[in-house]
Amino acid sequence: MEEGIKRFKDLRIWQKGIEIVSDIYILTKKFPKEELYGLTSQIRRSAISIPSNIAEGFRRYHNKEYKQFLYIALGSCAELETQIAIARMLKYITEEKETELIEKLDHLCRMTTNLIKRL
Questions:
Q1: Residue 3 pLDDT > 80, yes or no?
Q2: What's the gap between Cα 80 and its chain centre?
Q3: Is residue 1 part of a domain?
Q4: In-domain check, residue 50
Q5: Which of 8, 35, 88, 99 could form an S-S bond across to 58 if both were Cys, CB 3.0 to 4.6 Å?
Q6: Residue 2 lies in a domain
Q7: Burial class (CB in 10 A: 0-12, 13-18, 19+), 30
Q8: Tens of pLDDT, residues 74-90
Q9: What is the value of pTM for the model shown?
Q10: Any idea what DSSP says for residue 30?
């Protein structure tokens, strides 16, 4: 675990993950209603998975387990990036919004990878 960090809520990567979840929920409110149980649901689940796995890994007793959950969070980032690309292709989001979200995801992925290396 990160030195000096007592709660997962203090992790910057968790905070960034929560910020992305908020962005995704605001964004997907504008998706067509017929996507509610399709892309909207899937993109929200992927976003939620990121900070959830960061938090769950933090609570594990061994760094090996913690790393595994961080790798799962990275997988969810890739899944979310794919779904954002699909939303752009379907013209549910603008190119600017896609770029903004991908930049946030890339930053979170770099932070997560650096944490994995430090564990």
A1: no
A2: 7
A3: no
A4: yes
A5: 8
A6: no
A7: exposed
A8: 999 999 999 999 999 99
A9: 0.93
A10: T
